[in-house]
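Can't paste images in this forum, so I'm doing it all in text. The chain is below; anyone willing to post the predicted structure tokens underneath?
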Amino acid sequence: MAAFNWSGSQAVQSVVNIGPLAVIAPLLDRLDLADIIDRHLPPDPQLEYSHGEVLSLLLAARIAKPTALVNVAEWAEKSGAELLWNIPADKLNDDRLGRALDAFFEQRHAIQASATLHALGLADLSLERVHFDPTHVLFHGAYTSSLPRLSDNTVSPLRPSALIDPAHITHGYLAKDQKMVQVGAAAVIDKLGAVPIFTHLVGGNQNGHTAIHEHFELLRHHLPLPDRLLMISDRGT
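Text version of the structure:
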């Protein structure tokens, strides 16, 4: 075998292993997630990249390799996400990600609903049968800055701040000596399994009856529920 010596110029190459992003990126693109988010969040001319672009990349990070916000930029560079989303890794600092999450929080229910309707349309699923179940999340540590829940606890989809305060961590009704919140999740189920369609938080000292009532009010306000809706849950709610 003959040997050759190359004397011409050499291009600098960097190789990344995109791994699960080969599936996640086109899936998020088909779900139109970035555009859905941007339709609900007013554009900011001072931002180089929209909230939708940043948050869809952050979601990909949570699915592919969950990591703290301060580590997302490093992950984006190593995984090739910065190339797939066309956002330089150095633009993905925790401050930028935090601002996008703050903006999302204000429209979280409307964004969830729009994404749900688009996904159900792609999968040809209906909202006639919805399954609901809450689960609790325990927290450990000192939370001296936690604020009390609003005194007016009237359920109204037009006043989401009166419904839930996700920053409020309370003693759980199941575990009096621990801090917890409850996460309520609704799903549509077909022969292939469950498709989550909506989530929301309630205080840890609220029982399942409160969770399902608030959840139904949010669904009714944000989604075009059919007249003959059947909502299924366990006896705890």
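The radius of gyration is 22 Å. Residues 151-167 have pLDDT under 50 and may be disordered.
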